[in-house]
Amino acid sequence: MYDFLGKVCLVTGGTSGIGETVSERLIKTGADVIVFGRDEEKGAALADRLGEHCRFIACDVGDPAQVEQAFATIRSAYGRLDCAFNNAGVTAKYGALAQSCPDDWMKVMNINVNGTYHCMRHELQLMLTRGTGAIVNTSSCAGVVPIGGQVAYVASKQAINGMTQVASIENARLEEGGCIRVNAVAPGPILGGMNNEARLKAAPENTQRKINVTSMKRFGTADEVANAVLWLLSDQSAYVTGVIMPIDGGYASGKF
């Protein structure tokens, strides 16, 4: 359906869940994919499974020095960047703001917000040299309709929404008619990653709560999110920028 033949694409947080699925789908459509992740063992296994068109670079996106070095490698090896999916992110334990842990707050904000910022800054610099490109960030349904007990996560995802829309405005009309489109997806409860089987079984009440906040009363899949990501990265969405797209089974539609 999509043609990414010859395009150089970056996926952060790409060794599991949605990121892994997007990496695999991009390679199947002809892309060369660079995957950032912190787990070198998982990264090596992914690159081995996906083959010669996948390159893993160990990188903690919350560390600006590591991001700088990773992008130096991209510049040296590829000299360009066509697409980027900024998917690296973490959450924290549920709890009211008054009882929350400042260390948890800093960890979530550093990876989700600072990490997205560090990567976007370098991605845009690379894309601006050619005057074209597409970026998709991972927000969350909680960044569209906040939920209690997740102050750091909600704040981080709302910050990502803001960064997405600022960058979309700044790069929508470049010299000589160029454009770098910047959008975000806002997934609801998705199987895998943070909702892996072990976690869901360990907390059945929390699992049911996640299902109940959707009007469809089910979890989504990584493939369902990847469908939206690939569309937003592709030329088929050439007139779309600055969008925060819910992929959430109806979570953002209202309370049920």
From TrEMBL:
Residue ranges occupied by any Ketoreductase domain in the UniProt entry: 7-193
GO terms of molecular function: oxidoreductase activity
Keywords carried by this UniProt record: Oxidoreductase
Residue stretches in coiled coil: none
Pfam families: adh_short_C2
InterPro entries: KR_dom, NAD(P)-bd_dom_sf, Sc_DH/Rdtase_CS, SDR_fam
Annotated PROSITE patterns: ADH_SHORT (PS00061)
Assigned protein family: Belongs to the short-chain dehydrogenases/reductases (SDR) family.
Name under which the protein is recorded: Alcohol dehydrogenase
Species of origin: Pseudomonas fluorescens
Taxon lineage: Bacteria, Pseudomonadati, Pseudomonadota, Gammaproteobacteria, Pseudomonadales
